[in-house]
Design goal:
The protein is α/β, with parallel strands linked by helices. The protein folds into four domains: 136 residues, Jelly Rolls (Sandwich), CATH 2.60.120; 74 residues, Glutaredoxin, CATH 3.40.30.10; 203 residues, FAD/NAD(P)-binding domain; 117 residues, FAD/NAD(P)-binding domain. It has 16 helices and 28 strands. The strands form seven sheets. Strands 12, 13, 14, 15, 16, 17 and 28 form a seven-stranded mixed beta sheet that branches. A five-stranded parallel beta sheet has the order 19-26-20-21-22. Helix 4 packs across helix 5, helix 9 runs parallel beside helix 10 and helix 9 crosses helix 15. The termini are far apart.
Length: 568
């Protein structure tokens, strides 16, 4: 049993009181169970939640060629972890040990309990979250094994996808694990085919896309795509997650899609220290994980590895096409796709992405450059947070900026830390001029304004944090954008920007609403937004009030008339 379980076992496996079990009786049915009976199969979506009345239940984890009893549940214990609320596959089998009796509760009634019973909700949510953390820490993903190389960008991509989505897996690098060669021979693979993901014991995926991997491991809930949702949120960064929590908690049918993982760019921050309520700081991944759990608690349907490629403005309900095929319908859409880091204004070979060139500074990247020399390009808070974080494990951190200093672009507390850190060196008025290497970055050259020649440095790790470009290409001209490509909303919109549907509806634009009624934008993707985590959370939560008003529009006869007359 891992250290986390030892420290927080009472919270992971709390005992229900007789009074609590009596309340649960009203939501389920009592069933007799026999020794050896399998109630839940690992790798399948758990449809029922069990409370032990008499006898024992064994929580079983798969291991290579074997299995292990992770924990034994006795009277007053209950099964389940976050998969129950998300509707994704489970990571453990539940088998009856000693025969007895259980209370069986289906997923819909469990969700009702979580929403209506404050005492049981707190108890279940804490246990579910900690159990998932324990499974990840245990590496309880013998069912999913990633075979790769520490010098492969695609290996890092798959690691990031699984890790940021809190999916347990075994990480096997060919440079470090002798088992990799055995597995390659077993599945008739060659080392040049890495990375490879082995799912469910024998399903082999050769360098899968994130969507292919998500489909194989069953990370997403099953959702009826013919259904018209109240709200579709495109993007699960701080703004999208905040909107999902508030909208779902107020009873709206919420669907959210995200390309990589909850948290967006903020999810890659090693530590956020200026977010209200966290005086010692919190990692972007931890903040996103908590927000995701809240959204799932209130019933939001969240799918990752899903990419929006087109918004159809001519229909109402609105339709958003997906890259993987299919489409989603919703009466209201929130665009929360955020922004992506800029690249260098020189050629950045694609082969270096994840193999020396990185756009995030998490524990995964830190392990790759442990005790080595690195370069960070950028003068914003993300660059400052990365520099301070990586200085803990890297031999030398070079912070390269074109500006004369950091005063205009970085928070003062980060500037002070950088100045006080002996192994961070600021290179002002400096730009990167070339990147060199074969399969992995090997050398970087830069030039300072005061020098006439480039300086060549044998450094193989470069972190790019150069500001943001809006993720609005998928809108295909459906919404009014500013001259930089960000979505215009509210008072930023000029009369000529607005769809004729507003006039036919007889109303003005709501707060954070775009040029099309019922389409909103929040967070970094919105024009003139403050590019901060707290600002994104604020916009995502406050726009829900306007979303309710827009939903009333969507259900009114005026909307049908506006659509008929304008095609929008």
């Amino acid at each position: 049993m891992n250290e986390l379980m030892n420290k927080r076992r009472d919270q992971m496996f709390p005992k229900l009181s007789e009074q609590q079990m009596t309340r649960l009786d009203t939501h389920g049915v009592r069933e007799s169970v026999r020794a050896g009976q399998l109630l839940v199969q690992q790798g399948e979506r758990p449809e029922r939640f069990f409370v032990v009345v008499r006898g024992t239940l064994e929580v079983i984890l798969a291991r290579p060629g074997d299995h292990e009893v992770f924990n034994t549940l006795t009277a007053g214990d209950f099964t389940g972890e976050m998969s129950m609320l998300r509707g994704s596959v489970g990571f453990a089998s539940i088998r009856v040990g000693e025969p007895g009796e259980v209370i069986a509760i289906d997923a819909s009634h469990l969700r009702s309990i979580v929403l209506t019973d404050a005492e049981l909700s707190e108890l279940f949510m804490r246990a579910f979250i900690l159990r998932r953390m324990g499974l990840v820490a245990e590496g309880a993903g013998a069912d999913v094994r990633l075979l790769g190389s520490r010098h492969s960008g695609d290996t890092l991509r798959l690691q990031e996808f699984l890790t940021r989505n809190a999916f347990p897996y075994q990480d096997l690098h060919i440079e470090q694990h002798p088992d990799v060669q055995i597995l390659l021979e077993r599945f008739h693979l060659r080392s040049n085919e890495l990375p490879v993901v082995v799912c469910h014991g024998d399903t082999v995926l050769r360098n899968p896309s994130n969507h292919e991997l998500a489909a194989c491991i069953g990370i997403n809930p099953r959702v009826d795509d013919s259904r018209v949702h109240d709200l579709l949120i495109v993007g699960a960064g701080p703004a999208g997650l905040a909107a999902a929590v508030y909208a779902a908690s107020e009873g709206l049918d919420v669907r959210m899609i995200e390309l990589m993982a909850p948290g967006g760019q903020a999810g890659t921050s090693s530590r956020i220290e200026n977010y209200l309520g966290f005086p010692t700081g919190i990692s972007g991944r931890a903040l996103a994980g908590r927000a995701l759990s809240q959204a799932q608690k209130f019933g939001a349907n969240i799918c990752v590895a899903c990419e929006a490629v087109k918004l159809h403005p001519e229909t109402r309900p609105y339709v958003v096409d997906l890259a993987e095929g299919g489409a989603i319908k919703a009466n209201v859409v929130l665009v929360a796709t955020g922004a992506q880091y800029r690249t260098l204004d020189i050629e950045t070979p694609a082969r270096f992405l994840g193999a020396g060139v990185y756009y995030a500074a998490t524990n995964m990247e830190a392990r790759l450059c442990d005790q080595e020399e690195i370069i960070i390009v950028g003068g914003g808070n993300s660059a400052g947070q990365a520099a301070v974080f990586l200085a803990n494990t890297c031999r030398q951190v070079h912070l390269v900026v074109r500006a004369p200093d950091l005063i205009d672009s970085m928070s003062s507390y980060l500037i002070r830390r950088i100045e006080e850190c002996p192994n961070i060196r600021l290179h002002a008025r400096t730009r990167i001029t070339s990147l060199q290497g074969t399969d992995h970055l090997e050398r970087v050259t830069w030039r300072c304004e005061s020098d006439s020649q480039d300086q060549v440095h044998d450094i193989g790790h470069l972190f790019l944090m150069l500001g943001a470009l809006p993720n609005t290409h998928w809108l295909n001209g459906a919404l009014a954008l500013d001259d930089r490509g960000f979505v215009k909303t509210g008072l930023e919109l000029q009369p000529q920007d607005l769809s004729p549907a507003y006039r036919l509806l007889g109303r003005a634009v709501f707060a954070l609403e775009s040029s099309l009624p019922g389409i909103f934008a929040a967070g970094d993707v919105r024009a003139d937004s403050v590019k901060r985590v707290a600002a994104g959370v604020g916009e995502g939560s406050t726009c829900v009030q306007s979303i309710h008003r827009a939903l009333r529009d969507a259900r009114s006869p005026a909307t049908a008339l506006a659509q008929a007359k304008t095609g929008s």
